[in-house]
Design goal:
disordered N terminus; elongated; alpha+beta; two-stranded antiparallel ribbon; ten-stranded antiparallel β-sheet
Length: 383
């Protein structure tokens, strides 16, 4: 792995044309008839050639490029000193589009989270201690770069010392970890905020998170330092309240009683007292009430878990190329098996209060493209 050094473009200085030597006053002489006129002296390039013409050529070239490509992207910013001063955290504002593009790969990872992570790792320094150690602003080792690195900015080189490549690679790595911890949390193996679990998996590995059943003690310092920087970079985040999901009420109600006792969103858990994302909707329903499949699909999980109690996960295939799953938790009884095909309305189990629960209800979740989504826009609550 080679460290790409920046190449400075030499500045062009204006070279003044040589001055004519001072003329001495000649002594009077007798004119010689028919004497040939002296040849005009060849002059150097003038100010127009040296100063104006190169600028016109540059402007013409740029204009032609923009005409062919459709112009600069809306959120493009040059990496000059003025842009750097205006960017969150004082970093180069041209990193913003790359942070947003990288975070688009999943809803768990945000641009501000990526920026905070880079700040904690290197303070945005692009230097590496040795050629064999971590390199670039995201501190990638050679081995990790082989897995996650690409030539994302299309300059012909894939390098951890290229900030655009490094930001995109970190986003790919984090989103892969987010998918892993989402799966672990879906089947009840771990508990906690998905972004916390993702950052912990980055710091100490997914196996350590699995063994601890959540964020292990060994990751707490790293997690705290990164999260303390979130606010510094929140201006990089793109406002998107729906998480990019266009739900069209394509799911049938999983229970006939549609009293929502706890909606999707941040809340304080009634038993643990911890404030975190409530990843689904709680429907209050009588003990033993029937729970039905919200859409046709295949049962991929059906078992007892510590937090969710009796839990069922149904895979509904892809919607617009992205995986859609629904979950049904705290059941009193499970009436299906893994691998079973179900249709909309197929009985899955019975309402209960198993796991961490304060009373009979159904905790219903929608997982779209590997991330939790607010179930209410997906549900045809009026039939």
């Amino acid at each position: 792995m080679s460290d790409e050094s920046a190449v400075e473009t030499p500045a062009y200085e204006t070279v003044a044309a040589p001055e004519a030597p001072a003329r001495e006053t000649p002594a009077p002489v007798t004119p010689v008839p028919e004497a040939p006129a002296p040849r005009p002296r060849r002059r150097g390039p003038g100010p127009f050639t040296l100063l104006v013409l190169p600028g016109l050529v540059t402007l013409t070239t740029v204009a032609g490029f923009l005409a062919l490509t459709g112009g600069l992207p809306d959120d493009w910013s040059p990496g000059d000193s003025a842009a750097q001063d205006a960017a969150p955290g004082g970093v180069d504002a041209s990193y913003g589009p790359w942070l947003r593009k990288s975070a688009d790969a999943c809803t768990v990872v945000t641009p501000s989270a990526l920026a905070a992570q880079i700040d904690q790792l290197t303070g945005w320094s692009n230097a590496g201690a040795t050629t064999s150690g971590p390199q670039g602003i995201a501190a990638f080792t050679a081995a990790d770069w082989k897995t996650w690195g690409k030539d994302d900015d299309g300059n012909g080189r894939s390098s951890p010392s290229d900030p655009a490549d490094a930001i995109m690679a970190l986003g790919r790595q984090d989103c892969a970890l987010a998918q892993q911890v989402t799966d672990l949390r879906t089947d009840g193996t771990v508990n906690g905020e998905l972004v916390d679990l993702t950052l912990a998996a980055y710091a100490v590995g997914t196996d350590a998170v699995t063994k601890a059943g959540g964020v292990p003690a060994s990751a707490q310092t790293y997690l705290g330092e990164v999260k303390a920087l979130f606010a510094t970079y929140e201006a990089f985040d793109r406002e998107d309240a729906s998480g990019g999901v266009l739900a069209d009420a394509i799911l049938a109600p999983p229970v006939t009683t549609l009293t929502i006792t706890s909606p999707y969103g941040s809340r304080q858990h009634p038993l643990t007292g911890v404030t975190k994302l409530h990843t689904g909707v709680d429907f209050g329903a009588p003990q033993g009430a029937q729970v039905s499949a919200a859409r046709a699909g295949t049962v991929v999980f059906a078992a007892m878990t510590s937090a969710y109690g009796n839990r069922i996960v149904v895979d509904h295939g892809t919607i617009e190329g992205k995986r859609l799953q629904t979950t049904y938790s705290h059941l009193f009884a499970i009436d299906v098996t893994v691998g079973q095909t179900v249709q909309t309305g197929t009985p899955l189990g019975r309402v209960g209060s198993t796991g961490l629960s304060t009373g009979p209800h159904l905790h219903f979740e929608v997982i779209y493209d590997g991330s939790y989504s607010d179930p209410q826009p997906w549900l045809a609550l009026n039939g």
